[in-house]
Amino acid sequence: MNRTLLSGLSISTEVADALHEHRPVVAPKSIPLSHGLPAARNPGVAAEAAVELCAL
Prior knowledge:
Elements: E1 2-5, E2 9-12, H1 13-20, H2 31-35, H3 42-55
Antiparallel strand pairs: 1-2
């Protein structure tokens, strides 16, 4: 479930909870994934990066 903030900005419950609990929130840039790797590798690398970041 997402929460709507301000005008049209929505964040996930996971992010809202982290902010409420003063835990860090990471928003990785997608440009290196979309432009820096061969197209066939982008989805896999993005998924791996998300798993690693969430484990921190």
